[in-house]
Automatic annotation (TrEMBL):
Annotated GO biological process: carbohydrate transport
Region (Disordered): 363-382
Database matches in SUPFAM superfamilies: MOP-like, P-loop containing nucleoside triphosphate hydrolases
GO molecular function, one term: ATP binding
One GO cellular component term: ATP-binding cassette (ABC) transporter complex, substrate-binding subunit-containing
Protein name: Multiple sugar transport system ATP-binding protein
Residues annotated as domain ABC transporter: 4-235
Record-linked PROSITE patterns: ABC_TRANSPORTER_1, ABC_TRANSPORTER_2
Keywords linked to the UniProt accession: ATP-binding, Nucleotide-binding, Sugar transport, Transport
SMART domains associated with the record: AAA
Domain of life per record: Bacteria
Gene3D superfamilies: 2.40.50.100, P-loop containing nucleotide triphosphate hydrolases
Length: 425
């Protein structure tokens, strides 16, 4: 078991590409930490730096309290499993799993016992004498995990180990990974772009975007109280409802979120009211997940939006409604893409130039970041509110719809997408 500390770890690839930007993070002894983020955000780069397969450009890596930047991979006592866990094709499953023990010159009887025992845990007992070519994808990944873990490393690193498997196998293996890793108590860092994997597996999730750490916390913390609108949106299986509102405090009676055609009242008794009122006269972003909204009858006089049903979507276990509510769509604010700036003062080169022409440079963009006039949103797309209806579509297309709002579920962000810190209820 091992603790892992990253202190402002940065990776600039040759050619100037900034893949990981000043990442500070700790995995506790025995913890299951998931690195989550969209493709290209730097997850694999980070994992490879921990394993010693990629050089750290700046910053420090500590393994078990020891500075490890320049430790050779074999001296880190780390095991790694990749997306398509390559196996030795001419060795049997047993031979593959025993390989790290053979290298370590383990006692043959003990080795045999250990592999047999682990194969039972991984449900691949009956394949031990077979070659990898005869196995299913799920079985091959089990063997790869077995081979990685057989020597009981201090640190287990997994890079999207399930992403090549079909959905059923993914679910099955997900539960087994969780059970295996927890029974061994080995510190694990697990990379995925799949929010369900992250939420179900992790003790804590660290979420990355464009090489920058966005948030870190338990699954419940980052789901219910995300640090940025990006995190809120990324952890949503449907699109996050994100609207801009102006803050008022009419006659100091309550805090009013004014969405144009819609208004929501936050009473002073609400513990978040004071923090929101600091933005009086200015704009905030209001996020609400589809399950924080619900159809209500016309006579309902609680907090609500209204609009027209543009479409209904059948998802098997539930219906979703898309409600046209007459306000502009707000793109989810993302951190500035510093990866372009990493090319140095002589300019960002051709691609960087193109990115700048498309999106404006950072200063221009910040000036434009008055909500609703985001660069690239020139079409003034209208927002749809997405509402979960459960198993029964209570509306039909084109119906007038009233949508009740669970005000306690509103997530409040500044126009740059960072959370407005409000006391938790
Ligand atoms: N060897 C490399 N040289 C240059 N750029 C790289 C190299 N490997 C990865 N990158 C770039 O670094 C960024 C992060 O890559 P990666 O860590 O693989 O992301 P992820 O695993 O999150 O998909 C990407 O933009 C990728 O193109
Ligand atoms: Mg990757």
């Amino acid at each position: 078991m091992s603790s892992v500390v990253l202190d402002k770890v940065t990776k600039v690839y040759p050619g100037g590409h900034l893949a990981v930007d000043r990442m500070s993070l700790k995995a506790e002894n025995g913890e299951f930490l998931v690195l989550l983020g969209p493709s290209g955000c730097g997850k694999s780069t980070l994992l490879r730096m921990i394993a010693g397969l990629e050089e750290i450009t700046r910053g420090d890596l500590w393994l078990d309290g020891e500075l490890a930047n320049h430790l050779a991979p074999r001296d880190r006592d780390v095991a790694m499993v990749f997306q398509n866990g390559a196996l030795y094709p001419h060795r049997t499953v047993r031979g593959n799993m025993a390989f790290p023990l053979e290298i370590a010159k383990a006692d043959p009887t003990k080795m045999r016992e250990r592999v047999t025992e682990l194969s039972k845990v991984l449900h691949i007992e009956e394949t031990l004498e077979r070659r990898p070519g005869t196995l299913s994808g799920g079985q091959r990944q089990r063997v790869a995990m077995g081979r990685a873990i057989v020597r009981q490393p201090k640190l287990f690193l997994m890079d999207e180990p399930l992403s090549n498997l079909d959905a059923g196998m993914r679910t099955e293996l997900r539960m087994e990974i969780s059970a295996l890793v927890r029974s061994l108590g080995v510190t694990t860092i697990y990379v995925t772009h799949d929010q369900v994997e992250a939420l179900t597996l992790a003790d804590r999730i660290a979420i990355l975007n464009r090489g920058v750490l966005q948030d870190v916390g338990t699954p419940a913390q980052i789901y219910n109280d995300p640090a940025t609108a990006f995190v809120a949106a990324f952890l949503n299986s449907q699109q996050l409802n994100l609207l801009a509102a102006t803050v008022h405090t009419p006659q100091n009676q309550y805090v009013l979120l004014d969405f144009g055609p819609h208004r929501l009242i936050i009473p002073w008794s609400d513990p978040r009211a004071y923090a929101i009122s600091q933005y009086v006269g200015g704009q905030v972003l209001v996020g609400v997940r589809p399950d924080g909204l619900a159809p209500v009858p016309e006579s309902y006089d609680g907090p609500a939006f209204f609009g027209r049903v543009r479409a209904l979507e059948y998802h098997g276990h539930e219906w979703l409604a898309y409600i046209e509510c007459g306000v502009p769509a707000v793109p989810v604010p993302e951190p500035p893409d510093r990866r372009v700036a990493a090319h140095g003062p002589e300019g960002p080169g051709r691609l960087g130039g193109m990115v700048r022409r498309l999106f404006g440079n950072r200063e221009e963009r910040e000036e434009q970041e008055q909500v609703g006039q985001h660069p690239g949103s020139g079409t003034h797309r209208r927002a749809d509110l997405i509402v979960r209806l459960g198993g029964r579509p209570v509306w039909r297309a084109n119906d007038a719809a009233k949508v009740g709002v669970d005000v306690s579920r509103l997530m409040l962000f500044r126009p740059d997408g960072s959370r407005i810190d409000t006391p938790r209820r």
